[in-house]
Amino acid sequence: MPANILNLPAYTVTALQENEHDYHIDATVKAMPVCPHCRGGDLSGFGRREQMVHDLPSHGRRVGLYVDTRRFKCNPCSINQGKTVTFYEPLPDVDERRAMTSRLRAWIGKQAIKRTFASLAEEVGIDEKSVRSVFRDYINELEKTIRFEVPRWMGIDEIYLIRPRCVIANIANNTIVDMLHNRNKETVVRYLHHLEGKDRIQYVAMDMWQPYRDACHAVIPDAKIIIDKFHVVKMANEAMERVRKDLRERLTPKQRRGLMHDRWVMLKRERDLTDEDSLLLSGWIRNYPELGLAYRLKEDFFGIYDAESPDEAQGRFLQWKSQITPDIEPAFFDLVRAWGNWNPWILEYFNHPITNAYTESLNNLIRVMNRLGRGYSFEALRAKILFAEGAHKRTNSRPKFERKSRKEALQALLNGEDIESDLSEGAIGLAGTRSFSMGRMSPTHKPSTQLPEPPKNYGVDISTLTRMLENGEL
Known about the structure:
- This protein is α+β, with helices and mostly antiparallel strands.
- Helix content is 41%, strand content 19%.
- It has helices spanning 75-81, 102-111, 117-124, 128-145, 185-193, 210-219, 229-249, 253-257, 262-266, 275-287, 289-304, 310-321, 329-341, 343-347, 359-372, 378-386, 406-414, 462-470; strands at 11-18, 22-29, 43-58, 61-74, 86-88, 153-161, 163-170, 175-180, 203-206, 224-227, 392-394, 457-461.
- It has a seven-stranded mixed beta sheet, with helices on both faces.
- Helix 7 runs antiparallel to helix 13 (329-341), helix 11 (289-304) packs antiparallel against helix 12 (310-321) and helix 15 (359-372) packs parallel to helix 18.
- The two termini are 39 Å apart.
């Protein structure tokens, strides 16, 4: 019998059976236990039972470990208590809560980050419910040990996964920091309240969702709130779309055919139009002036964000608003009202041009992951994103090694320090020749006792997560 078939030193393998899919390994515990009550070793045998536990798959086969578990009677405890005191010997390297080895539990936790629960359950030979349970415990352990740096520039956005969820991001580092199960004020307040170092948050970019704003005012009142540019200009596109759709509903089928591909052309910025696009657009504008005005209003609204100050931006907005005619005013009503309701926080962008520009790619990424992992709970999807191995953006634990300069080496020689000289050809030592000393370090040269700063974890890098998804690693 191969002694290392299990690679578990605490066990002795006594038998092995195998078939096409499985290994069945009989084993016994090597060491004698002690009484869990008195910690004594005066024990007598009192029967035994077989316990089956799952272990790591090997050579593509599932592994079942059948342990001949001994039962003991503690003689001193039985005398002292006047009754028979028995216990089964503990099984080393086995999860006390589950019928599996500790190493299998740890392996399942890591694998479940990038694989489906069903595939793991099939490979190991356990039910999917057990995989979910192990994964949940694994994530709870990670939550206690992994700490992301609090972003100085925080992004608060949302993603629809069955229902709206809140996404917390580090804008400066293009990373995901957390995902919350909903976007309610109470949830965001609770998250911010328990955030260590929340006083370091300087700016928060968000969309126009009042619970986000109220939560930030309540917990981090000193942070500047900035309404994300892209959520505002998106409303200009939506207003133009309402004009376009309303117009199409009033046209005949023949006239609609004349507006073929109008949506894709009109959503383009004017600077991105091809010659063919410009020709089409000019024809539509001649025939349907309101469509042309809606397109011009959309473009001019984008131009507001070219302003260099809040006052200039507000002036541009008032000029833009004056161009809206009564016939298309309903389509632009939401945008005008949003600017009025959120004016201070929209204009804050022109003092601090911070945006959640990355969030669209982030949202697309999360949707793809959700589609690939159809059937995942939100908690599982969140864990797969936040704890994807190799996707975290970290600082180095210490700076790069830098070669000592020639000037520093010469100065060291002049100071009489006994160190190795690494000067370029022609460098002159104290005796007028090149000096190379391999001796010990001079007592006057004391190494730094300052401990290196521990590495920082800024969260999950969105570009790395995208690459891992494209390579099938998640």
